Structures are given as C-alpha cells and as structure tokens.
UniProtKB/TrEMBL annotation:
Lineage start: Eukaryota, Viridiplantae, Streptophyta, Embryophyta, Tracheophyta
Protein name: ARM repeat superfamily protein
PANTHER family assigned to the protein according to its UniProt record, in alphabetical order: GLOMULIN
Alphabetized GO MF terms: ubiquitin-protein transferase inhibitor activity
Gene Ontology terms: cellular component: cytoplasm
C-alpha cells in the first residue's frame, strides 16, 4: 500500500480537507495486516513467499515514513509515527518466532530510524525496537545490519536524527558481543565516522540537529571504553583513543 502525499484538497463548501486522511486512518490496520501476512509467510517455510511478504512489509513501512516525514511539524503525523512504532514494538515483543524476526531485521532498523525523527517519544521506542532485534537475533548478526543502515538515508529522511537509534544499537551491540570484539568494533567505526563527517559538513544541517547523533556517538565510545577496561585490551584502547580524536575533529567542523 502506498500513501498519497499530505496535501489539502478544496471541498465543495470551500473548506480545506486532507486528500489522504483515509490513508492515514488506515495506517495501523494496514500495518497489522502486513505484519501478520509476513509472519504467516515465514511460518509456511516457503522462502520465496516469505521474501516477498517481507519486501511488501518493507515497502509499506517506507510509505508510512514518507507520509510522516512529509510534514515534520504536523502533530497528527507525529502521533501516527508513534502509534506505528508502538505497534511494531508490541508485535516483536509478542512474537515467539525467531525466524520472523530474522526476516524483518534486515530492513527494520532503517525504517524505524526514519520514523524516530518525528519526536523524542518516537526516538525512545525506535531504540527499544532495535534493542529487541539485538536480543532476539544476536549482536553479531545485527551489527553489520546496523552499520549497513548508515548508508545515507532516503532524501525524505535526510536528517542527522536518523542516525541516533542506529548509534544506540551499535553501542548496545558492542557491549553484547562476546567474541572477536576488536575485529567487530574496528569494522563498524569507519561507517560511523564517515556519516558524522557527512552531516557535520552538510550546509543544510543546523548545528542544533548535530547534538543528538554526537551524543550517541560518545555513548559508543563509552561502550568501547567499558569493554577495553574489562579485558585490558591494548589494541582496543588504542582504537578508542583514535576514535575519540576523530570525533573531536568532526566536532570542530560544527
């Protein structure tokens, strides 16, 4: 299901009415239907059917984020974003099918991160969704997915706040990885630094919007510090020092 853009249409009496109100009203029922269809498809064991259902769910969530981000000042759309994220979180918590969670884990971090831009409440629940994915799928499985979502988002989500839930997830994943910590951390950090450099140099980005992603990046550094202190890992400490120095360089570009 694709949503129309949120534009006003002129009614017969001369008043303005939203041309996509019915689509907005059907967001949650449509999401429940898509989640249920995907879950059932995965349960069937047919890879082609489950892949198609997962793709349809991803497209549905993309349409929702397009709608929500079409007007980031609209309070109704902010509430709708929170409802969507709450529905996803509730569905994940209620699901006992790890295969279903695995099937949607590849695209879910990116889509919930886009919706997290809508409000602080949306950010908090998006982070809980990513925490749940890490819990069910495992930190080593989710880490490359989270890093992959750093590839610059779609134009409608061109906002530094997009990166906050992903950074939160990477920080949590680092703390949960039990083996090959140095190798996994070393692989993920360049992606973070590249994204920070891109947004800090973007002339269209306000300085105030950079605070949140940099705060989350410092949380990543704190996670690395905690790991290195526990393991007395000299290479990890050296990597942490370099990471912090590069963060400071990017802060100077504010």
């Amino acid at each position: 299901m694709r949503f129309c853009s949120r534009k006003s249409a002129m009614a017969a009496d001369g008043s303005c009415e939203s041309s996509c109100s019915p689509a907005v009203d059907q967001t949650i029922p449509g999401l429940r239907k898509a989640l249920h269809a995907c879950s059932k498809a995965v349960e069937s064991g047919d890879l082609s059917i489950s892949s198609r259902a997962a793709e349809e769910l991803a497209l549905y969530l993309h349409s929702v984020s397009e709608l929500v981000l079409s007007d980031q000042e609209d309070e109704d759309l902010k509430r709708k974003a929170f409802e969507v994220l709450s529905e996803i979180h509730g569905y994940l918590c209620a699901s006992t099918d790890e295969a279903f969670v695995d099937a949607i884990s590849g695209f879910l971090p990116k889509e919930v991160s886009k919706l997290s831009i809508a409000s602080e409440k949306c950010l908090r629940i998006a982070e809980r969704i990513i925490d749940k994915l890490i819990e069910v799928c495992g930190a080593r499985f989710m880490l490359p997915i989270l890093a992959g979502a750093f590839a610059y988002p779609d134009e409608e989500a061109h906002n530094p706040k997009y990166f906050a839930p992903l950074l939160h997830g990477i920080s949590a994943a680092f703390l949960s990885i039990g083996r090959r910590q140095f190798e996994n951390i070393k692989t993920a950090l360049p992606v973070i630094l590249t994204s920070l450099e891109d947004i800090s140099r973007d002339p269209n980005v306000e300085t105030a919007d950079l605070i949140l992603p940099f705060q989350r990046t410092l949380s990543v550094a704190t996670s690395i510090r905690n790991i290195s202190e526990g393991n007395m890992h000299d290479k990890l400490r050296a990597l942490l020092t370099l990471f912090i120095l590069q963060i400071l360089v990017r802060i100077l570009h504010f």
